[in-house]
Amino acid sequence: MQQREVDIAIIGAGSAGLSAWHAARRHSDSVVLIEGGAFGTTCARVGCMPSKLLIAAAEAAHRARDAGGFGIRVSGVEVDGTAVMTRVKQERDGFVGRVFKSMRRIPDQDRLEGHARFVDPHTLSVGDHTRVTARNIIIATGSRPTWPGMFDAAGDRLIINDDVFAWDDLPESVAMFGPGVIGLELGQALHRLGVRLRVFGVGGALGPFRDEKVRASAEAAFNEEFYVDPDARVEKIERDGDAVVITFVERDSGETLTERFDYLLAATGRRPNVDRLDLEKAGLALDERGVPRFNRFTLQCLNADESPSHLFIAGDANQELPLLHEANSEGRIAGDNAGRFPELRAGRRNVPLAIVFTEPQMATVGEGYATLEKRLGGCDCLAVGEASFEDQGRALVMRENRGLMRVYAEQGSGQFLGAELLGPRVEHMAHLLAWALEQKLSVGQMLAMPWYHPVVEEGLRGALRDLNANLKLGPAITERCMECGPGD
Ligand SMILES: Cc1cc2nc3c(=O)[nH]c(=O)nc-3n(C[C@H](O)[C@H](O)[C@H](O)COP(=O)(O)OP(=O)(O)OC[C@H]3O[C@@H](n4cnc5c(N)ncnc54)[C@H](O)[C@@H]3O)c2cc1C
Ligand SMILES: NC(=O)c1ccc[n+]([C@@H]2O[C@H](COP(=O)([O-])OP(=O)(O)OC[C@H]3O[C@@H](n4cnc5c(N)ncnc54)[C@H](O)[C@@H]3O)[C@@H](O)[C@H]2O)c1
């Protein structure tokens, strides 16, 4: 067993771990980065990037098929599954290659391969070859998919998102469990690429939405295109030969159906990789999920006796906001603070922003409706405005007129608080709204900004006007401007 003594050890060379390494190195040359799985990051290998590549191929197929709606005849649209997967994997390898290239800046002696576990609060055993003692340790171990035991009946036909990006060809059929973020992104893409699909959920949850009206609008919009039952009654999952056989009650007919699928894809959520670290030896206070308790501005963990720890936790491992930009900024803050320990700095945290790349797209900005309702609803302090995309000018032009936006503000101050968005290209509107929230703008100030015509953002202006009217702060709401055409 080799012995290493370092200032800072980082467990996990994903997005959070890499950001932490760069930040920590500004303070010390004695930083080691430990990786127990594949290098290249979840985002580039099996997450953000390959999923967006699959979605891009699906969009191309969809546009070709939808061209008839514009009077353009495109005959014989064919999806070549092998070519689709070849491009997805080639481009994905390019993204992973870029991560490797940036990792070349990390000297070989600063990288260790092997699974890390705590031996005591300052010591890690890595694989069965090295023992690392560190002044500070950053846990940046990411997350992994989780699923209920009943799916195991599907045997090796039970797959997760990682497996999709290893396919050489597209399958004939997939039963997707979990209409969350991953389930809807991948599900819609597979459907548009010609894969027979059913999506099953539990308890009615759909996508990232907590606002019931937006959730219901999403349920209706996706069901126009493919089968999604967010509150499914699945009676049996069996394996028969190469197929997964699923018996379920169909959502609209109420009939009990038995169908065969090539795969059962589990997209039923992710759990933090903190359960295989022997955390009990690290002396930390854990929450009910076994995740270390931590300060979101310093990323510093708390000891079991409530004193501040020398350990930090960043990225999906802490489960606060399991998104790429959050992993990057948390890694940076944790690395910086591990470097300057025990003198810590509060890191700057941005307002919450999440975007889902379905069509219509889904996005949430700010604390989210459920939290706002709880915090402000009881005293009538929460004002809500909304606008539908169904008759929005530019959305109609593009044949993308589906979706609903709900925007929230504080009564009295008129300060904008957040939004839940379903609609065309809302990725851009979500950014505008996040920037407005960062600037603490009031709804009146947002409405005073320039709005072009004809753009989908005019739909957002409609929602903000509705919100402004409900705030009862004035100025008077502009009636629809007829000479501006639909959308104003
Ligand atoms: C299909 C999919 C699509 C996504 N799309 C988006 C998107 O569009 N936009 C977005 O913002 N986010 C997206 N995400 C989320 C995003 O990928 C994650 O939030 C981000 O990658 C988390 O980074 P991380 O550094 O915390 O974890 P990771 O990149 O997973 O890094 C953790 C590393 O720790 C290693 N490790 C774990 N335990 C140990 C141990 N004990 N010892 C040593 N090493 C260990 C792991 O092997 C891993 O390499 C997506 C995720 C998925 C799955
Ligand atoms: N575009 C993006 O930013 C993006 C894309 C993909 C993933 N991500 C990140 O990854 C995280 C994890 O995504 P996810 O989709 O795995 O989680 P999720 O929490 O978004 O969705 C899980 C879904 O599975 C459902 N579910 C749970 N148990 C079930 C069961 N037994 N049967 C059927 N359905 C069941 C839940 O009700 C929920 O709808 C996201 O929260 C997000 O942070 C982000």
Automatic annotation (TrEMBL):
InterPro entries: FAD/NAD-bd_sf, FAD/NAD-binding_dom, FAD/NAD-linked_Rdtase_dimer_sf, Pyr_nuc-diS_OxRdtase, Pyr_nucl-diS_OxRdtase_dimer. SUPFAM superfamilies: FAD/NAD(P)-binding domain, FAD/NAD-linked reductases, dimerisation (C-terminal) domain. Keywords: FAD, Flavoprotein, Oxidoreductase. The keyword NAD does not apply. GO terms for molecular function: dihydrolipoyl dehydrogenase (NADH) activity. Residues 7-331 form the FAD/NAD(P)-binding domain. It is an enzyme of class 1 (oxidoreductase). Its EC number is 1.8.1.4. It holds the Pfam family Pyr_redox_2. The keyword Flavoprotein applies. Residues 355-461 form the Pyridine nucleotide-disulphide oxidoreductase dimerisation domain. Its cofactor is FAD. Belongs to the class-I pyridine nucleotide-disulfide oxidoreductase family. This is Dihydrolipoyl dehydrogenase. It comes from Halomonas mongoliensis.
